[in-house]
Amino acid sequence: MLKSRSSLPLAFLARLCVKLEAPMHNPRLDQLGDYFFRRLAALLEPVTPASDLNPIDLSIGQPLHPTPALLKDTLSENAHLWHRYPPSLGTPDFRQAVADWLSWRYRLPQHMLSPDRHILPVAGTKEALFMIAQVITPESKHAAKPAILMPNPFYNVYLGGAIVAGAEPVLLPVTARTHHLPDLDALEQDEALLARTVAFFLCSPSNPQGSAADLDYIKRALRLARSHDFLLIMDECYSEVYGGEPPKGGFEAAAALGGDLDHLLVCNSLSKRSNAAGLRSGFVAGDPDIIKTFNRLRSYGGAVQPMPVLAAGAALWRDEEHVRASRALYEQKFDLADSFLSGCFDYHRPDGGFFLWLNVGDSEAITRRLWSEAALKVVPGAYIGYADDSGWNPGAHAIRVALVHEKTVTEQALERLVRTLC
Ligand SMILES: Cc1ncc(COP(=O)(O)O)c(C=O)c1O
After folding, report:
1. What is the pLDDT of residues 353-372, one digit of tens each?
2. Which H helix or E strand runs over 202?
């Protein structure tokens, strides 16, 4: 009795000591700030939106065009498969649909892509872009800390993955001078950095600026990856939202360089292309060694797409009609943006994607103002970009505006934005 009474405070003290010495979480997570949507919520929390206006959320890159009927039909036709655990490699049919689509879209030579060796389904590319760093980050490279390169501003998931994997995220500032893409001339000068680089994230068309890399640029990035033995990770999730020429992709560059897929990983999904962000269906494709190792990791801890989702995904990759219809809607909205914004805020019609990236000044202050005076929710560029050692954040003066609503709502939003800021 006595023993148990006295042992209680001792156990408590022991637990307290452990708590003081070693927090019960991975300390690398302390390097991650709050994800930017949380920061945005905190920024706007004390601000009351204009009460006479309906709030319009332009912050999330979540397409609100109609969900294709094909998606609902295929899901219900395959409803008898919900009980099955799906394999992490997905179904042969899904992989074949993706291989066929990639081959058609990028005019690849026959047999360049093997559905079994080069393609891996993922539950949306977010998880893949996060997890890939764990696949490719060694303890050190040439006796130095491994570096993972990414543009700045950028999709912040790249940074989270790099940090948790123990790599150093190296942010390459992008500005209008380099068409909002990392400056490869500058990168090529930095031999020491290239020597310890294990991966380079390249988003094209880019989020947030919508800049598409041309074929020469992607070929050059891939050659650099091969000569310095790192993985070029092409984030192509906006590849099907464009107005003019279809954006070039990583596989086109690989084909132009002889057809090998080593040192290349391409990520894409149905979220933007098929207005199906909630489906969580995407793929990674490319270097067969990486695909194999990635599948090993994912078979332990990756989210897999359920069987009906794989069936719906295959059907959607085989259909272009709904994609063309959706593109036409974006075109109408960018026509509106042209008429409202030409000559203002360095507006440019992007090569691809559905964001406006507007140079408005102090991005946090303007975000608050748009919410309070116009009931418009946008993302401050300061939250998508990161400050360098000198304190310069290449996103600090811009806001990101997602043209994801239907045309009439978008028109209202643009009209309010211009009325408030001009
Ligand atoms: C640049 C970029 N990459 C990847 C993703 C992830 O998309 P998903 O996980 O829906 O495929 C997003 C989503 O907003 C994005 O903007």
Report:
1. 999 999 999 999 999 999 99
2. strand 197-203
